[in-house]
Amino acid sequence: MIGEQLVIESFSRKFGERFRMYPSSAKRGADNFFFLIRDDNDKYLVIAGDSAVCARFDGEPSGTLQFNSNTLSLKVAYLNHHNLTVLQKFFPHLAPSTCSKRASFGTGDRLGVTTPAHIRAFKDRYTFPVLAQQSVRENSRTGRDFQKVLDDAIWGAFEAGYEGPFGADADHVKRIEDLKEAVDCGYTMFTIDPSDWVRSDIHRLSEEEKNLFYESFPEKKELERRYLNKRYAVEGEKVYFEEKSLRDIALTYFRAVQHVAESYEFLRGYKRNNFDFEVSVDETPFSTSPLAHIFVVEELHRRGVDFQNLALHFIGDWQKGIDYIGEVDKFAREMSLHASIARKFGAYKLSLHSGSDKFSVYPVFAKQTQGLFHIKTAGTSFLEAIKIVARKNPSLYREIHNFALTRFAEDTAAYHVTTDVSRIPDAEKVPDDNLDSLLQQPDSRQLIHITFGSVLRAKNSEGKFLFRDKIYATLFKYEDDYYKEVTTHIEKHLTLLEGSQGGK
Ligand SMILES: [Zn+2]
Question: What's the gap in Å between 163 CA and the centre of ligand 1?
Fold first, then answer.
């Protein structure tokens, strides 16, 4: 009987000069063998087996492998969408699945070459990995789309030889047409962002203006009947809606909840099988009060929205790519209220966005939610990539750094950060072997974090990418170093989260 290792060895004897193997990827499916290889420029899928099977893949026929009386046809195939679809027929585990209420962690991979490193970080852990996670906004900044993001993650899972479950999150979706696209691509998790419908300016209106607006609300009477003076026991305290708080919360969130319900109804009708549903009201300029949390959840439930995750804007300062800024004790008190509400109203998971590097609050978050949590990260893996660029290709790093400085004023408008570029050391004066320290300094870290879209899209006058191809080439050349850094970094996140629950 021929085994996977024998096939790899035999292939390696024949082509070892030209290609490097990924032995962990080797799999046997219906008496055919599949594994990943690479040369200096690209990765390929090798199929060794039946000639009719080889013919189903796009690529170059590459002769045969001989084992005594057995002859295996060989094909070196491309990592494209068609080939992935055929490969999935042999290995159904190469498809995302739902996670439901398990503790979960999203590893947003903006570059699409990081999944094998992410998977290693999840080894021997119970947290469910959401390996594909990009928002519509991120895709517009990186020039990718939902299908590409999912395909890249699945090729990464294949490379790592991963056979466990994983999720695919269409993140921060605002429009039904984007939801439809994500369903068609095969996503299993949908994060609805109703922020266009949240009235964040209510607190700026006068009492008179608010009353006038509220009077025009067709649902006013119904809401008052439902909520006014209704008491909820939260952590031994009674909280309740009085007239003004109900008015302000309803004016702020009512239309947003309607939008979420419409999105949910669409998914129920359009997606034939199960899905994970996340509601995110995290992108408000103010933190979500416990009472607003209750209102949103009650209104979602009343409309029959079965959600697994709820992202709130938690108290404190959640800046991109750096640790939490705020009093951890205060956060812990507020979290205990939100977690208690989440348990009381159906035990959904609380979702933490901007989760990159929030090391000081992870233990509290995991403990208070008792493992009912989801975390989203993305920027932090990109920063690890640029760290490798700083170490291995210092001149490219300096070019990126200086370009990012020219983009910062414009790009920062989309973010809430307190970055002070004047504190960033001059990259030209930092010696090569210390350049990666700039990725530890919060201001330069955020500089690189915030300008990622501009850096990846920048082109010269001939229409060629200024940095993008060079970043990919550097990561490809130093892939082992890149994987190692990312794995260690994500492990640090997971250890703090899992360590805090006493195991599950
Ligand atoms: Zn968010």
Answer: 29
The strand ranges marked E within 281-364 are: 309-311, 349-352
Give me the active site residues, please: 171, 278
Q: Which residues pair with 376 in a beta bridge?
A: 106
Listed residue (327, 321, 311) closest to 361, CA to CA? 327
User: Tokens in use for 25?
Assistant: 């990827």
At 413 the pLDDT is 87
DSSP string, 362-406: HHHHHHHHTT-EEEEE-HHHHHHHHHHHHHH-HHHHHHHHHHHHH
What angle (nearest 5°) sits at the alpha carbon of residue 391, between those of residues 388 and 393? Answer: 90
Q: Tell which residue, 435, 322, 441, has the closest CA to residue 379.
A: 322
| Strand partners of residue 171 | 135
How confident is the model at residue 106, as a pLDDT? 98
Residues 6 or more apart whose CB falls under 8 angstroms from that of 184 comprise none
How close is the Cα of 369 to the center of ligand 1, in Å? Answer: 18
What is the Å distance from ligand 1's center to 436 Cα?
28
CA distances from 485 to 102, 127, 151, 385 (A): 27, 20, 23, 9
pLDDT at 51: 96
- The rounded average pLDDT for each run of 10 residues, N- to C-terminus, in the chain (504 residues) is 89 94 95 97 97 97 91 97 98 97 97 98 97 97 97 98 98 98 98 96 94 93 95 92 96 97 98 96 92 98 97 94 94 96 95 94 96 95 98 98 97 87 95 97 95 97 97 98 98 92 46
466: how many CB neighbours lie within 10 A of its CB?
Answer: 16
Report which of 359, 347, 357, 355 is spatially closest to residue 374, judged by C-alpha positions: 355
Across the chain, which distance is largest between two alpha carbons, in Å?
A: 89
Q: Tell me the fold of 104-201+251-380+490-498.
A: TIM Barrel (3.20.20)
For strand 20-29 and strand 349-352, is the pairing parallel, antiparallel, or unpaired?
Answer: unpaired
Distance 30 CA to ligand 1 centre (A): 43
Kindly report the pTM of this predicted structure. Answer: 0.96
If you measure from the C-alpha of residue 171 to the centroid of ligand 1, how many angstroms do you get, rounded to a whole number? Answer: 8
User: Which sequence spans correspond to the domains of the chain?
Assistant: 4-90, 104-201+251-380+490-498, 392-480
CA 193 – ligand 1 centroid, Å: 8
How far out from the chain centre does Cα 348 lie?
19
Alpha carbons 350 and 371: distance in angstroms, whole number:
9
